[in-house]
Specification:
462 residues; mainly beta; Leucine-rich repeat, LRR (right-handed beta-alpha superhelix); 2 domains; ten-stranded mixed sheet; 4 helices; 20 strands; signal; Leu-rich_rpt_4; repeat; LRR_domain-containing
Length: 462
């Protein structure tokens, strides 16, 4: 007998026998030690297996061959089994409508999956798949496609061929864009794209007339297309910022292309987000706010910002930098405190020295300030300072001050610079500042120290 013919006969017998296997036999052959939570098997009215679930096993050496002989299978669940590849003989499961391979160790998708023309539900979330192959567009019966928490960097244009798709989950990947063809998915009602690196959403998404839910949280988006019907679609757009995607190199090109290395410094945190930025000695137009590098106000990860000697007198959008702890706007042209600065309640260090400030609005709200420099301005009086009880260092030098109400409330103050003002006597409340170490009163109109200061431990400059 011809050997090739014999092999065909044996294969046919094997498949025929497998198709008539009972659930008990399958468990004995494949997963004899499985408990009821990790092994579930269902048969139809003819005794044929149509659903098989095997979870939490170790199939790192390959999916058991017997599974692919159960040609009556419609639903196959193999979750958390250390599976590294999908073999060719998956094409035997021509009746398969559900395939769940979540939480395995897949890095690619076998091209043979593209031949499962009856597949309606495909779940491959929590794997290490970096590329969604173009043949995914062949699965035109798909209703649901799960690819969350993988490592996808792009989506093929063939995704637009899935005309029956209703649910598409692509959250927690590395996507920077999605193709315009997404607009072809006319039956799509749920689209999850959270936790990616998307910078723009195509206008074609407005073509999805059946879309009910669109999740875009934690991306790099500034806006969403106005083609989306906001009255019909539930859109979640939280925690979006360019700062989650922007590199220091890109920022330099956008905000300060001609800066030299001394005038531009940028640092990132452990997550790769920009958290520290210094730009010095530039000539940003102070009469044309369009020339101010507004990209800065989109970097909400910033904790430290220095814009020194940059010729600015406005800071549009400063209130967006809610994570700022240190802000240095020294040697600019501000006539008053930047609008919205009072909302930066995490500020610990603030330097607005060497400007032309005549007033400061909302100072009392910056209750976490430890260091405040308002020296070399045009301040004649101020309000709210007594609320800043965490202040340790305060510089009001070279202004037009002649009084200091409620100074005794700054109980943590250690250094106080009032030189170059209009004081004729030491503000009375200063003697109550038990932690004060340095008091600079030079270049005022004070001619002598009161007796209570003559034996003080405070270093007094007069």
């Amino acid at each position: 007998m011809n050997i090739k013919f014999l092999l065909i006969i044996l294969s046919y017998i094997s498949i025929t026998l497998a198709a008539t296997l009972t659930c008990k036999q399958v468990k004995k052959q494949i997963c004899s030690s499985c408990n009821d939570d990790n092994f579930q098997c269902k048969t139809d009215g003819n005794g044929k297996i149509y659903s098989l679930l095997i979870n939490n096993q170790n199939f790192s050496n390959g999916i058991p061959e017997n599974i692919f002989s159960i040609t009556s299978l419609k639903d196959l669940y193999l979750v958390n089994n250390n599976i590294t590849s999908i073999p060719q003989n998956i094409v035997n499961l021509k009746n398969l409508r559900r395939l769940d391979l979540r939480t395995n160790k897949l890095t690619t998708i076998s091209k043979y999956v593209g031949q499962l023309s009856n597949l309606k539900y495909l779940k491959l979330s929590n794997n290490d798949i970096s590329s969604l192959p173009s043949f995914i567009g062949n699965l035109k019966s798909l209703l649901s496609l799960y690819f969350s928490n993988c490592k996808l960097t792009s989506i093929p244009t063939s995704i637009g061929n899935l005309s029956n798709l209703e649910k598409l989950l692509l959250k927690k990947n590395k996507l920077e864009s999605i193709p315009d063809e997404i607009g072809n998915l006319k039956k799509l009602n749920e689209l999850l794209l959270a936790n990616n690196y998307l910078r723009v959403i195509p206008d074609e998404i407005g073509n999805l007339k059946n879309l009910n839910e669109l999740i875009l949280d934690n991306n790099c988006l500034d806006t969403i297309p106005n083609t989306i019907d906001a009255d019909k679609v539930s859109v979640s757009f939280e925690q979006n910022s360019i700062s989650y995607c922007l590199s220091c190199t890109e920022l330099k090109e956008i905000a300060c292309e001609k800066c030299n290395s001394d005038d531009f410094k940028c640092e990132t945190n452990s997550k790769g987000y920009i958290n520290s930025l210094t730009i010095k000695n530039q000539h940003f137009s102070y009469t044309d706010t369009n020339k101010f590098p507004t990209i800065i106000t989109k970097i909400i990860s910033l904790e430290k910002l220095e814009l020194i000697h940059d010729g600015i007198n406005v800071f549009p959008g400063i209130k967006k930098l809610i994570n700022l702890q240190e802000l240095n706007l020294d040697n600019n042209l501000f006539l008053e405190s930047p609008s919205g600065i009072e909302q930066l309640t995490k500020l610990q260090i603030l330097n607005l020295g060497s400007n032309s400030l005549g007033k400061f609005t909302g100072l009392e709200k910056l209750i976490n300030l430890q260091e405040l420099n308002l020296g070399s301005n045009s301040l004649g009086k101020f309000t709210g300072l007594e609320k800043l009880i965490n202040l340790q260092e305060l510089n009001f030098s070279n202004n037009y001050l002649f009084e200091f109400p409620n100074i005794e409330k700054l109980i943590n103050l250690q250094k106080l610079y009032l030189n170059g003002n209009l004081y004729f006597e030491i503000p009375s409340g200063i003697k109550e500042l038990n932690k004060l170490q340095i008091l600079d009163l030079r270049n005022n109109y004070i001619t002598s120290l009161p007796s209570e200061f003559k034996n003080s431990d405070i270093e007094i400059l007069i």
